Amino acid sequence: MVYLAKKNGGIIHHTDLKAMKDLDGISAPTLTVTDEEWERNGSTAYIDANGDIKLGEPPEVVARRNEIKALEEEEKALQRELDNKDYKVIKAAEVGVVLADTDPTLHTRRDWCRSRINEIRDRLAVLDLEEDAA
């Protein structure tokens, strides 16, 4: 079993009730969970807005991680698109073909991709700073 309690604005956890009392002066845990449940939730807990101990990571941490993952995936897709279009531009230039004549949206789309990648990188930098501050 894992025993959790609040102390000094944080959460402590023990696997031994006597140790919880002897080391932290807490005679009764606020929450008791099985070892499996504790591990299934990443061996983490947080205090919610109501002051209750909840297993897992806070929703804002999960949301930030999901946003980072989505942004990174979008950036990779845009970069692949740019790489593909760059390859076409280079190959066309090698044979003297002006792709803008055959695909008038090419340059506009490439500019948009680069702009969006910069926006994503700016947002990722902000999210990184927020994580460091947390």
In brief:
The chain is α+β, with helices and mostly antiparallel strands and 134 residues long.
**Order of helices and strands, N to C?**
EEHEHEEHHH
* Uncertain spans: none
Query: What shape does the CA trace take?
Result: rod-shaped
Into which percent range does the helicity of residues fall? Answer: 55-70%
Count of distinct structural domains: 2
Work out the radius of gyration.
26 Å
Largest sheet: 3 strands, antiparallel
Secondary structure class reads: alpha+beta
On the 0 to 100 scale, the average pLDDT is 90
How far apart the termini lie comes to 29 Å
Q: Numbering strands along the chain, what is their spatial order in the largest sheet?
A: 2-1-3
| Fraction of residues in β-strands | 5-15%
Distinct helical segment count = 5
Number of strands: 5
Keywords summarizing the entry:
single chain, 134 residues, alpha+beta, three-stranded antiparallel β-sheet, two-stranded antiparallel sheet, 61% helix, rod-shaped
Please describe what this structure looks like:
The chain has 134 residues and is α+β, with helices and mostly antiparallel strands. A 3-stranded antiparallel β-sheet has the order 2-1-3. Strands 4-5 form a two-stranded antiparallel ribbon. Helix 3 packs antiparallel against helix 5. It has 2 domains: 56 residues, no CATH class; 74 residues. 61% of the residues lie in helices and 15% in strands. The protein is rod-shaped.
